[in-house]
Amino acid sequence: MEKSEVLRLTGKKILKIREQKGFTQLDLAARIQGDFDTTNVSRIESGRTNPTIYTLFRIAEALEVSLADLVIDEVKD
User: Fold this and answer.
1) What is the Cα–Cα distance from 46 to 25, expressed in whole angstroms?
2) What is the CA 13 to chain-centroid distance, rounded?
3) What is the largest CA-CA distance in the chain?
4) Phi and psi at residue 57, to the nearest 5°
5) Residue 14 and residue 57: Cα distance in Å, rounded?
6) So what CATH class is 3-69?
7) What are 1-11's pLDDT values in tens digits?
8) How far apart are the C-alpha atoms of 25 and 37, rounded to whole Å?
9) pLDDT tens for residues 17-55?
10) String of b and e for 48-70 (b: at least 16 CB within 10 Å)?
């Protein structure tokens, strides 16, 4: 699998979980530990940036899911 596809699928999974929880991008950014901007959430969800493991960990904590839940192989629509 290409890097771009991994980033896209991971972002899509984060978006799906965020929406299931009823959070906006602003809500999620506010819940993430440390300084985090909504533009970062947008870039990650669209697969336009490669987040660090620590950033994914912080997102998982904010969404109250495991890190593994964010990095599955496929996203089912």
Assistant:
1) 12
2) 7
3) 32
4) -60, -45
5) 12
6) mainly alpha
7) 899 999 999 99
8) 9
9) 999 999 999 999 999 998 889 999 999 999 999 999 999
10) eeebeeebbebbbebbebeeeeb
Cα angle 9, 57, 23 (rounded to 5 degrees) comes to 70
Q: Enter the tokens of residue 2.
A: 């290409």
Least Cα distance to 56 among 36, 73, 75 occurs for 36
pLDDT at position 52: 95
What are the boundaries of each domain within the chain?
A: 3-69
Give the Cα separation of 16 and 3 in Å (integer): 20
* pTM of the full structure: 0.89
Name every residue whose Cβ is closer than 8 Å to that of residue 72 and which is 6 or more positions away in sequence.
Answer: 9, 13
